[in-house]
Structures are given as C-alpha cells and as structure tokens.
Design goal:
- Strand 5, helix 5 and strand 6 form a beta-alpha-beta unit.
- This protein has a single domain, classed as DsrEFH-like (Hypothetical Protein Ychn, Chain: A, 3-Layer(aba) Sandwich).
- By secondary structure, it is an alpha/beta fold.
- Helix 3 runs parallel beside helix 4.
- The protein has six helices and seven strands, in the order H-H-E-H-E-E-E-H-E-H-E-H-E.
- It has a five-stranded parallel beta sheet, sandwiched between helices. Strands 3-4 form a two-stranded antiparallel ribbon.
- Helices cover about 45% and strands about 20% of the residues.
Length: about 150
C-alpha cells in the first residue's frame, strides 16, 4: 500500500519540473512553429455533444495559432450540408461556429464516400467546405502534427 502512494506522489512532484524543462514549448513558441491539426468529426445530429465539442476544439486550437482542418466523415458530413438545419447543443450554435472557423481560415474537408452516402454534392455544401479526394485526404492525414478525434 505504501508503494502505491509513492507511485502516486512521484508524478505530482516531478510534473511541474517537466513543464519547466528546457524543451517545453511556450505559447509564443507554439505560435512561431505553427502546428497542422486535423479535427476529425464522425457525427452531427446523432451526437450533438461531439459535434459541439469538435467545433469548440477546432476554433480554440485555431485561435491559438494552429493551422486547423476539420475532417468530416460518416454522419459528420451533414454538418457541411447546407440543406441541414443549424443545430445547437447546450447553447452552442454548431453551424455558427463552423462559419466562424471557415471565416478565420479553417478548412473543411468531407470524406467522399460519406458525402455520397448522404447525398451531398458540391452544390449542397456550406461555404468553405470541400469534398476531398483520396490524395487530398492522404496528404491531410500524413501532414498533420496532431489529429483530434470526435
């Protein structure tokens, strides 16, 4: 039992030292070394909590200097479908956040089979969204520094 307590205390004691380590990046350093981030969302109306959280994360990371792409597949493609209603979750206007994200330079890429399955063509897309191609999606994923999955 004493050993368990010691193992729990060590991370608490060492954690602050790791944060102050010479290699730890500051916010300014992060912004100078812009990260390529992909936020992956696989749901919209069926899971508004994930859709809202994904959009909040994308906007937050974008506002902190990252180059962010929102990758939509499965039911998530419906977020970029202009025919779909703008839905809210816990007071979060998910489509409004999408518009702000795109206006600030965010990229929105849809999975082609997911878009086809949902009946979404280029004419049905919200502004700033695009249907990806296999090479575009491969480049997107292979070039990402971070992929955040919802």
């Amino acid at each position: 039992m004493h050993r368990l307590h010691a193992l729990m205390i060590i991370p608490l004691a060492v954690g602050p030292l790791v944060a102050l380590a010479p290699g730890a990046a500051t916010h300014a350093e992060f912004q100078q070394n812009e990260k390529r981030v992909v936020v992956h969302l696989g749901s919209y109306a069926a899971d508004l909590a994930s859709a809202g959280s994904a959009m909040l994360m994308a906007v937050n990371v974008q506002n902190n200097g990252a180059d962010v792409t929102l990758f939509l597949d499965r039911d998530g493609v419906r977020l970029a479908d202009a025919r779909q209603p703008a839905l809210e979750y816990a007071g979060i206007d998910v489509v409004g956040l999408l518009g702000s994200f795109v206006a600030a330079g965010g990229r929105v890429v849809l999975c082609p089979p997911g878009a086809a399955h949902a009946g979404i063509g280029r004419d049905q897309l919200r502004p700033g969204a695009e249907i990806g191609s296999p090479p575009v999606i491969a480049e997107l994923m292979l070039g990402a520094d971070v992929v955040i999955d919802f």
